[in-house]
Write a structure and sequence with these properties.
With about 200 residues, the chain is mainly beta. It is about 10% helix and about 20% strand. It is built from three helices and twelve strands. The strands form three sheets. It has a seven-stranded parallel beta sheet.
Length: about 200
């Protein structure tokens, strides 16, 4: 249901096994620390995990198509004050499971918490999916090369990272990533493609 657990800061864990749908803002502003969205979830609302400032570990395996701007893991567009917008100073990792074929539009747009995204097999990345993820330092691609429009990322992707920014790819695929969108855009923003 929409807003089912919104604002429930005492909620730190949830078992979504067997769940087929999650409504708009269902866990927004909750106290979740980790979550696995299983492949059984075929209907997904918008802003489901928005403002979850304790959510550090995400496994996203839902093949659901989200209409419009999903912003499932977004924070706020006012990213200038990290303390205000990420009071727990969490570094989040999102693992995109092999059941996901297309990452939804604006999947984690304005997410200032995620420092690593792991793709286990997604084949496409929608527009703005990784845009304005200012702390995104590492993208790891374990399966085939996900394709996407250049606007799947933005100049704000990783712009708050002071150290190395890297895209980890399978052996023998460095040149292919450097030439394809959106990866070539990220190279232009200072990311280095490294083979694993």
């Amino acid at each position: 249901a929409a807003s089912a657990f919104e604002g429930n800061t005492a909620l730190e864990a949830v078992d979504l096994t067997g769940i087929t749908g999650i409504g708009d803002a269902a866990f927004q502003s909750s106290g979740l620390k980790a979550v696995t969205v299983p492949s059984s979830v075929t209907t997904m609302g918008t802003q489901v995990f928005r403002y979850c400032y304790s959510l550090a570990d995400v496994t996203y395996n839902s093949p659901a198509t989200v209409s419009g701007q999903s912003r499932l893991f977004s924070g706020t567009s006012a990213v200038t004050d990290l303390t205000l917008n990420n009071p727990n100073n969490i570094s989040r990792t999102i693992t995109v499971g092999s059941a996901v074929t297309t990452l939804p539009v604006a999947f984690a747009q304005y997410d200032i918490m995620t420092t690593k995204v792991v793709f286990e097999g997604a084949t496409a990345i929608s527009q703005a999916a990784l845009a304005a993820m200012t702390r995104l330092a590492t993208i790891e691609c374990k399966g085939g090369q996900p394709t996407g429009a250049a606007n799947a990322v933005a100049s704000t992707t990783g712009n708050a990272v002071s150290g190395d920014k890297k895209i980890l790819v399978p052996a023998g695929q460095k040149a292919a990533y450097e030439a394809a969108t959106p990866w070539s855009s990220l190279v232009g923003y200072g990311y280095k493609v490294e083979e694993q």
